[in-house]
Design brief:
The protein is 84% helix and 0% strand. With 92 residues, the protein is mainly α. The relative contact order is 0.05.
Amino acid sequence: MSKLFAWLTVLSALTALWISAVYGPYDPTFKRQFIYPAPFVAAMLFAFVSLITILVRVSRLITRIDASEELQKDIQEAKEELQKLGIVGKTD
């Protein structure tokens, strides 16, 4: 819940800044070119960063699955070696 609260706080602050810029004493041309499209640009940047984050995490997940399978194989080999030496009895 604290992460949600932090994001809502930031979003509220940015919204307040945008509203103050819209009603501020700026040139209408400046408002039309920079201030009005700012929320749309921010949304597009957020979507782009989210997509990149998802792609990076999925690629790391595949690596982790491979590492997990390799670790399970190593554990099984170690159990078999210990059984051959008589240190550990059958566990399966």
